[in-house]
Design goal:
Elements (H helix, E strand, L loop, with lengths): L2 H12 L9 H11 L15 E10 L8 E13 L13 E16 L4 E12 L2 E11 L1
Antiparallel strand pairs: 1-2, 2-3, 3-4, 4-5
Length: 139
């Protein structure tokens, strides 16, 4: 036997019992596997994850002439719900939230040729300590 003949025989043996796309057997196996959410026997992802979010911003320029003042904030809640097929939530949804607030003051100087900006932001997540982020700029 030549190596080419050996390859043909090996390929025939390896493909014995293989499901061919388009056949009833292939389609049945495909539908069974893709509709089964079990990590042991299927490939279906269950995902009923939800995100709730609220954001707001207000610019006080109509009320204050000395500088431009802005305040704002945001809140988010994540509810991971995949029945254990994507996340480690087989025993129930994983719920966590985060929020943040900020204030920014901007003042134009020297006939609007120079701009001073100062801001502070606070962010907090259920899983982490809160963090302040100050910023100053002069442009």
């Amino acid at each position: 036997r030549t190596s080419e003949q050996a390859h043909v025989i090996a390929r025939q043996v390896a493909q014995t019992g293989a499901l061919l796309p388009g056949t009833a057997g292939f389609n049945n196996a495909f539908n069974t596997i893709t509709s089964d959410p079990s990590l042991l026997s299927g490939s279906k992802f269950v995902d009923a994850t939800k995100l709730s979010q609220v954001e707001g911003n207000y610019n006080f320029s109509e009320l204050v002439d000395v500088a431009e003042i802005q305040v704002g904030g945001s809140w988010r809640e994540f509810k991971l719900k995949s029945a254990g097929t994507i996340f480690t939530d087989a025993n129930g949804p994983i719920v966590f939230s985060e929020y943040g607030f900020y204030m920014q003051v901007m003042k134009k100087l020297m006939d609007d040729k120079l701009k001073f900006t100062g801001s502070i932001r606070y962010d907090k997540s259920k899983n982490y300590d809160g963090n302040y982020s100050p910023r100053l700029s002069l442009v």
